[in-house]
């Protein structure tokens, strides 16, 4: 099983982030948190890296259904969407989201299947729409 749903864009980083936010919103996901890995690693460790942003996205109805099945599932919710510059190609940005099927595989909880399937459909639609533009 592939751990990520992803696409590759040939655009500026800021445009890729904006397009990703819009695509997520169109599928019912809100961005609750944002972690700028580039800035954090520079500030905390003095390390340089390419632009790398983690968007903490949440679809409340899906999250509610998942925690209704297993309260511990918050540990595995597919909330992080990564927008990162390809370190080998300056004009390339990669957008990735965790494959929701991992929730089912890790927990072996069949009641999570429909939630994971719907989350995967919505995340895949968001990711795929980025490549369509």
TrEMBL record:
Position of the signal peptide: none
Domain of life (superkingdom): Bacteria
InterPro entries linked to this entry: DUF302 (IPR005180), TT1751-like_sf (IPR035923), UCP021774 (IPR016796)
Gene3D superfamilies tied to this protein: TT1751-like domain (3.30.310.70)
Domain DUF302: 35-100
Pfam families cross-referenced by the UniProt entry: DUF302 (PF03625)
Protein name: DUF302 domain-containing protein
């Amino acid at each position: 099983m592939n751990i990520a749903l992803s696409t590759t864009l040939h655009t500026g980083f800021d445009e890729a982030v904006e397009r990703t936010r819009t695509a997520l919103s169109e599928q019912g996901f809100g961005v609750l948190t944002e972690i700028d890995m580039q800035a954090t690693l520079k500030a905390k460790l003095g390390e340089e890296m390419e632009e790398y942003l983690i968007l903490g996205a949440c679809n409340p109805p899906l999250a509610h259904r998942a925690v209704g099945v297993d309260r511990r599932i918050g540990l595995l919710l597919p909330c992080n969407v990564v927008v990162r510059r390809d370190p080998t190609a300056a004009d390339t940005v990669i957008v990735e989201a965790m494959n929701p099927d991992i929730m089912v595989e890790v927990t072996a909880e069949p009641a999570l299947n429909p939630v994971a399937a719907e989350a995967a459909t919505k995340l895949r639609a968001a990711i795929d729409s980025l490549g369509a533009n």
